[in-house]
Protein backbone atom coordinates (compact mmCIF):
# COMPACT_ATOMS: atom_id res chain seq x y z
CA UNK A 1 0.00 0.00 0.00
CA UNK A 2 1.08 3.55 -0.73
CA UNK A 3 -0.02 6.16 1.81
CA UNK A 4 -0.03 9.75 0.63
CA UNK A 5 -0.14 12.06 3.65
CA UNK A 6 -1.50 15.46 2.73
CA UNK A 7 0.20 18.61 3.90
CA UNK A 8 -0.96 21.00 5.25
CA UNK A 9 -3.04 19.09 7.77
CA UNK A 10 -3.71 19.21 11.51
CA UNK A 11 -3.45 22.21 13.79
CA UNK A 12 -4.17 25.63 12.35
CA UNK A 13 -2.84 28.78 14.00
CA UNK A 14 -6.09 29.45 15.85
CA UNK A 15 -6.26 25.96 17.35
CA UNK A 16 -2.58 26.04 18.31
CA UNK A 17 -3.12 29.41 20.00
CA UNK A 18 -6.18 28.17 21.91
CA UNK A 19 -4.40 25.07 23.24
CA UNK A 20 -1.32 27.08 24.21
CA UNK A 21 -3.63 29.53 25.97
CA UNK A 22 -5.05 26.82 28.21
CA UNK A 23 -1.59 25.41 28.95
CA UNK A 24 -0.19 28.87 29.69
CA UNK A 25 -3.15 29.70 31.94
CA UNK A 26 -2.62 26.48 33.89
CA UNK A 27 1.09 27.23 34.25
CA UNK A 28 0.45 30.78 35.41
CA UNK A 29 -2.64 30.33 37.58
CA UNK A 30 -2.60 26.64 38.47
CA UNK A 31 -5.49 24.20 38.22
CA UNK A 32 -8.34 24.37 37.74
CA UNK A 33 -8.75 26.64 34.72
CA UNK A 34 -12.36 26.70 33.55
CA UNK A 35 -12.96 26.66 29.80
CA UNK A 36 -16.34 27.56 28.30
CA UNK A 37 -17.33 24.82 25.83
CA UNK A 38 -14.66 22.60 24.32
CA UNK A 39 -11.55 24.60 23.56
CA UNK A 40 -11.50 23.03 20.08
CA UNK A 41 -13.62 20.29 18.51
CA UNK A 42 -11.39 17.32 19.27
CA UNK A 43 -12.09 14.90 22.11
CA UNK A 44 -8.45 13.80 22.39
CA UNK A 45 -7.26 17.38 22.88
CA UNK A 46 -10.01 18.04 25.41
CA UNK A 47 -9.13 14.94 27.43
CA UNK A 48 -5.43 15.79 27.43
CA UNK A 49 -6.13 19.28 28.74
CA UNK A 50 -8.61 17.92 31.26
CA UNK A 51 -5.82 15.69 32.56
CA UNK A 52 -3.65 18.77 33.07
CA UNK A 53 -6.31 20.54 35.13
CA UNK A 54 -8.70 22.21 32.68
CA UNK A 55 -12.39 22.05 33.59
CA UNK A 56 -14.80 22.32 30.65
CA UNK A 57 -18.19 23.91 31.32
CA UNK A 58 -21.24 24.64 29.17
CA UNK A 59 -22.56 27.45 31.37
CA UNK A 60 -20.76 30.33 33.04
CA UNK A 61 -22.76 29.69 36.22
CA UNK A 62 -20.61 26.56 36.64
CA UNK A 63 -17.54 28.78 37.17
CA UNK A 64 -17.00 29.92 40.77
CA UNK A 65 -17.85 33.59 41.26
CA UNK A 66 -14.79 35.72 40.65
CA UNK A 67 -13.01 32.78 39.04
CA UNK A 68 -11.00 32.43 35.85
CA UNK A 69 -12.64 31.34 32.60
CA UNK A 70 -11.23 30.92 29.11
CA UNK A 71 -13.38 31.43 26.00
CA UNK A 72 -12.71 28.87 23.27
CA UNK A 73 -11.39 29.34 19.73
CA UNK A 74 -14.96 29.35 18.37
CA UNK A 75 -15.79 32.63 20.11
CA UNK A 76 -18.90 33.78 21.97
CA UNK A 77 -21.53 36.46 21.66
CA UNK A 78 -21.75 39.63 23.79
CA UNK A 79 -24.29 37.98 26.10
CA UNK A 80 -21.54 35.69 27.42
CA UNK A 81 -19.25 38.66 28.00
CA UNK A 82 -22.01 40.44 29.91
CA UNK A 83 -22.74 37.30 31.96
CA UNK A 84 -19.07 36.94 32.86
CA UNK A 85 -18.91 40.58 33.94
CA UNK A 86 -22.00 40.22 36.15
CA UNK A 87 -20.37 37.30 37.96
CA UNK A 88 -17.01 39.04 38.29
CA UNK A 89 -15.19 36.43 36.22
CA UNK A 90 -11.71 36.98 34.89
CA UNK A 91 -11.81 36.17 31.17
CA UNK A 92 -9.04 34.95 28.90
CA UNK A 93 -10.29 35.33 25.35
CA UNK A 94 -8.86 32.59 23.10
CA UNK A 95 -11.26 33.35 20.22
CA UNK A 96 -9.47 32.70 16.93
CA UNK A 97 -8.56 36.08 15.39
CA UNK A 98 -10.15 34.97 12.12
CA UNK A 99 -13.44 34.25 13.92
CA UNK A 100 -13.17 37.59 15.69
CA UNK A 101 -12.88 39.19 12.23
CA UNK A 102 -16.29 37.73 11.33
CA UNK A 103 -17.75 39.01 14.60
CA UNK A 104 -16.50 42.49 13.77
CA UNK A 105 -18.05 42.30 10.31
CA UNK A 106 -21.42 41.26 11.75
CA UNK A 107 -21.33 44.15 14.18
CA UNK A 108 -20.17 46.69 11.60
CA UNK A 109 -22.78 45.73 8.99
CA UNK A 110 -25.60 45.67 11.55
CA UNK A 111 -24.53 49.04 13.00
CA UNK A 112 -25.12 50.45 9.50
CA UNK A 113 -28.63 49.02 9.54
CA UNK A 114 -27.94 46.25 7.05
CA UNK A 115 -29.57 42.85 7.21
CA UNK A 116 -26.71 40.38 7.63
CA UNK A 117 -26.99 36.95 6.02
CA UNK A 118 -24.69 34.48 7.75
CA UNK A 119 -23.79 31.43 5.69
CA UNK A 120 -23.14 28.82 8.33
CA UNK A 121 -24.12 25.67 10.19
CA UNK A 122 -26.99 25.89 12.69
CA UNK A 123 -25.99 25.05 16.24
CA UNK A 124 -22.24 25.25 15.63
CA UNK A 125 -20.43 27.10 18.43
CA UNK A 126 -18.92 29.58 15.98
CA UNK A 127 -22.26 30.33 14.35
CA UNK A 128 -23.99 30.83 17.69
CA UNK A 129 -21.30 33.27 18.79
CA UNK A 130 -21.38 35.23 15.53
CA UNK A 131 -25.16 35.57 15.54
CA UNK A 132 -24.98 37.05 19.02
CA UNK A 133 -23.21 40.15 17.68
CA UNK A 134 -26.16 41.16 15.48
CA UNK A 135 -29.20 39.36 16.96
CA UNK A 136 -31.80 41.72 15.48
CA UNK A 137 -30.24 41.98 12.02
CA UNK A 138 -28.89 38.53 11.19
CA UNK A 139 -30.35 35.62 9.24
CA UNK A 140 -28.78 32.16 8.97
CA UNK A 141 -28.59 30.41 5.60
CA UNK A 142 -27.27 26.84 5.40
CA UNK A 143 -28.21 25.55 1.95
CA UNK A 144 -28.77 26.60 -1.65
CA UNK A 145 -32.51 26.15 -1.15
CA UNK A 146 -32.49 28.48 1.86
CA UNK A 147 -30.47 31.01 -0.13
CA UNK A 148 -33.14 30.92 -2.85
CA UNK A 149 -35.93 31.67 -0.39
CA UNK A 150 -34.47 33.83 2.37
CA UNK A 151 -36.48 37.05 2.72
CA UNK A 152 -34.91 40.35 3.70
CA UNK A 153 -36.72 43.62 4.51
CA UNK A 154 -34.61 45.72 2.14
CA UNK A 155 -32.69 43.87 -0.62
CA UNK A 156 -30.61 46.98 -1.32
CA UNK A 157 -29.41 47.13 2.27
CA UNK A 158 -28.01 43.65 2.80
CA UNK A 159 -24.62 42.05 3.54
CA UNK A 160 -23.29 38.54 3.89
CA UNK A 161 -20.63 36.90 6.06
CA UNK A 162 -19.66 33.24 6.45
CA UNK A 163 -18.55 30.72 9.03
CA UNK A 164 -14.80 30.18 8.78
CA UNK A 165 -14.89 26.38 8.39
CA UNK A 166 -17.32 25.84 5.51
CA UNK A 167 -16.77 23.98 2.25
CA UNK A 168 -15.22 26.52 -0.09
CA UNK A 169 -17.23 25.30 -3.09
CA UNK A 170 -20.54 24.95 -1.25
CA UNK A 171 -20.12 28.42 0.23
CA UNK A 172 -19.25 29.91 -3.17
CA UNK A 173 -22.42 28.43 -4.68
CA UNK A 174 -24.59 29.87 -1.91
CA UNK A 175 -22.97 33.28 -2.22
CA UNK A 176 -23.58 33.26 -5.99
CA UNK A 177 -27.29 32.73 -5.31
CA UNK A 178 -27.34 35.60 -2.82
CA UNK A 179 -25.57 37.90 -5.28
CA UNK A 180 -28.04 36.99 -8.02
CA UNK A 181 -31.03 37.64 -5.79
CA UNK A 182 -29.59 40.74 -4.10
CA UNK A 183 -27.28 42.46 -6.61
CA UNK A 184 -26.39 45.21 -4.13
CA UNK A 185 -25.43 42.84 -1.30
CA UNK A 186 -22.23 43.83 0.48
CA UNK A 187 -19.42 41.28 0.83
CA UNK A 188 -16.86 41.11 3.64
CA UNK A 189 -13.61 42.95 2.79
CA UNK A 190 -11.81 39.59 2.63
CA UNK A 191 -13.12 36.04 2.39
CA UNK A 192 -14.22 34.71 5.78
CA UNK A 193 -13.36 31.03 5.23
CA UNK A 194 -10.00 30.72 6.95
CA UNK A 195 -6.72 29.96 5.20
CA UNK A 196 -6.35 26.59 6.96
CA UNK A 197 -9.80 25.39 5.92
CA UNK A 198 -9.16 26.43 2.30
CA UNK A 199 -5.70 24.85 2.20
CA UNK A 200 -6.80 21.51 3.63
CA UNK A 201 -9.75 21.32 1.26
CA UNK A 202 -7.55 22.19 -1.74
CA UNK A 203 -5.18 19.38 -0.77
CA UNK A 204 -8.01 16.84 -0.72
CA UNK A 205 -9.27 18.06 -4.10
CA UNK A 206 -5.78 17.82 -5.60
CA UNK A 207 -4.80 14.44 -4.15
CA UNK A 208 -8.06 12.47 -4.08
CA UNK A 209 -8.03 11.51 -7.79
CA UNK A 210 -5.14 9.11 -7.26
CA UNK A 211 -6.57 7.54 -4.09
CA UNK A 212 -8.60 4.36 -3.66
CA UNK A 213 -9.60 5.45 -0.17
CA UNK A 214 -9.50 8.71 1.82
CA UNK A 215 -9.21 8.72 5.60
CA UNK A 216 -9.74 11.99 7.48
CA UNK A 217 -8.65 12.04 11.10
CA UNK A 218 -10.97 14.36 12.96
CA UNK A 219 -13.76 14.70 15.47
CA UNK A 220 -17.40 14.18 14.52
CA UNK A 221 -18.14 17.67 15.92
CA UNK A 222 -15.43 19.29 13.79
CA UNK A 223 -17.03 21.14 10.88
CA UNK A 224 -13.78 21.48 8.93
CA UNK A 225 -13.01 17.75 9.33
CA UNK A 226 -16.46 16.72 8.10
CA UNK A 227 -16.02 18.97 5.08
CA UNK A 228 -12.82 17.12 4.08
CA UNK A 229 -14.60 13.78 4.13
CA UNK A 230 -17.58 15.19 2.23
CA UNK A 231 -15.37 16.73 -0.45
CA UNK A 232 -13.65 13.40 -1.08
CA UNK A 233 -17.00 11.63 -1.28
CA UNK A 234 -18.23 14.30 -3.66
CA UNK A 235 -15.34 13.36 -5.93
CA UNK A 236 -16.54 9.77 -5.96
CA UNK A 237 -14.03 8.40 -3.46
CA UNK A 238 -14.75 6.13 -0.48
CA UNK A 239 -13.98 8.38 2.48
CA UNK A 240 -14.32 8.05 6.24
CA UNK A 241 -13.99 10.45 9.16
CA UNK A 242 -12.26 8.73 12.08
CA UNK A 243 -11.36 10.09 15.54
CA UNK A 244 -8.29 7.84 15.71
CA UNK A 245 -6.77 4.62 14.38
CA UNK A 246 -9.01 2.56 16.63
CA UNK A 247 -12.03 3.50 14.52
CA UNK A 248 -10.65 2.00 11.29
CA UNK A 249 -12.54 -1.01 10.00
CA UNK A 250 -10.13 -3.52 8.43
CA UNK A 251 -12.47 -4.18 5.50
CA UNK A 252 -12.09 -0.54 4.40
CA UNK A 253 -8.50 -1.34 3.41
CA UNK A 254 -9.27 -4.49 1.42
CA UNK A 255 -7.86 -4.04 -2.08
CA UNK A 256 -6.63 -0.51 -1.34
CA UNK A 257 -3.28 0.24 -2.96
CA UNK A 258 -3.38 4.05 -2.66
CA UNK A 259 -4.57 5.66 0.57
CA UNK A 260 -4.90 9.41 1.06
CA UNK A 261 -4.57 10.45 4.69
CA UNK A 262 -5.27 13.90 6.10
CA UNK A 263 -6.60 15.51 9.27
CA UNK A 264 -8.77 18.38 10.40
CA UNK A 265 -7.49 21.63 11.86
CA UNK A 266 -7.87 20.54 15.50
CA UNK A 267 -6.13 17.16 15.27
CA UNK A 268 -2.79 16.39 17.00
CA UNK A 269 -0.18 14.96 14.63
CA UNK A 270 0.29 11.87 16.80
CA UNK A 271 -3.19 10.66 15.76
CA UNK A 272 -2.15 10.74 12.11
CA UNK A 273 1.04 8.84 12.97
CA UNK A 274 -1.03 6.16 14.72
CA UNK A 275 -3.06 5.59 11.54
CA UNK A 276 0.15 5.10 9.58
CA UNK A 277 1.38 2.60 12.16
CA UNK A 278 -1.94 0.75 11.96
CA UNK A 279 -1.55 0.40 8.19
CA UNK A 280 2.08 -0.69 8.51
CA UNK A 281 1.05 -3.45 10.89
CA UNK A 282 -1.07 -4.93 8.09
CA UNK A 283 1.79 -5.16 5.61
CA UNK A 284 4.46 -3.22 3.72
CA UNK A 285 3.66 0.47 3.21
CA UNK A 286 5.28 3.29 1.31
CA UNK A 287 4.58 6.62 2.98
CA UNK A 288 4.88 9.85 1.05
CA UNK A 289 4.11 13.31 2.42
CA UNK A 290 2.76 15.56 -0.34
CA UNK A 291 2.94 19.31 0.31
CA UNK A 292 0.49 21.56 -1.54
CA UNK A 293 1.28 24.82 0.25
CA UNK A 294 3.50 25.91 3.12
CA UNK A 295 1.79 27.48 6.12
CA UNK A 296 3.64 29.88 8.39
CA UNK A 297 0.75 31.66 10.13
CA UNK A 298 1.12 32.14 13.87
CA UNK A 299 -1.09 34.08 16.28
CA UNK A 300 0.09 35.70 19.49
CA UNK A 301 -1.40 34.54 22.77
CA UNK A 302 -4.37 36.50 24.13
CA UNK A 303 -3.43 39.83 25.70
CA UNK A 304 -4.51 38.52 29.13
CA UNK A 305 -1.59 36.06 28.97
CA UNK A 306 0.98 38.59 27.75
CA UNK A 307 0.78 40.87 30.80
Sequence-ordered SSE layout with sheet pairings:
Layout: E1 2-7, H1 13-29, E2 33-36, H2 43-52, E3 54-57, E4 68-71, H3 78-86, E5 90-93, H4 97-111, E6 115-119, H5 125-131, E7 138-141, H6 144-149, E8 158-162, H7 168-181, H8 195-207, E9 213-217, H9 223-234, E10 239-242, E11 258-263, H10 269-282, E12 286-291
Parallel strand pairs: 1-11, 1-12, 2-3, 2-4, 4-5, 6-7, 6-8, 9-10, 9-11
Helix pairs in contact: 4-5, 8-9
Briefly, what is this?
38% of the residues lie in helices and 19% in strands. The protein is α/β, with parallel strands linked by helices and 307 residues long.
Description:
- Helix content is 38%, strand content 19%.
- The protein has a 5-stranded parallel β-sheet with strand order 10-9-11-1-12.
- It has 307 residues and is α/β, with parallel strands linked by helices.
- The protein starts with a strand and ends in a 16-residue tail after the last strand.
- The model has no long low-confidence stretch (mean pLDDT 96).
- β6 (115-119), α5 and β7 (138-141) form a beta-alpha-beta unit.
- α4 (97-111) packs parallel to α5 (125-131).
Mean pLDDT across the residues is 96
Number of helices: 10
Structural class: alpha/beta
Helical proportion, percent range: 25-40%
Largest sheet, in brief, is: 5 strands, parallel
Q: What oligomerization state is this entry in?
A: single chain
C-alpha end-to-end distance = 51 Å
The strand line-up of the biggest sheet is 10-9-11-1-12
Number of strands: 12
Query: Rounded to an integer, what's the Rg over CA atoms?
Result: 21 Å
Amino acid sequence: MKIVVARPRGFCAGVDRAIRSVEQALERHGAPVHVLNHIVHNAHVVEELRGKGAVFVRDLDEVPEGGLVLFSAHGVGPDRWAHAKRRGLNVIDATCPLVEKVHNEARRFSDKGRTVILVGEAGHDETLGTMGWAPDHILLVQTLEEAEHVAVPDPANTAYITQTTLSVEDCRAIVEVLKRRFPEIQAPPREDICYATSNRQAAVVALSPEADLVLVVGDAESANSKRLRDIARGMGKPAHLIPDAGAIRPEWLDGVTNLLLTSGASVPERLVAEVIEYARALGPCEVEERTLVEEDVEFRLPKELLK
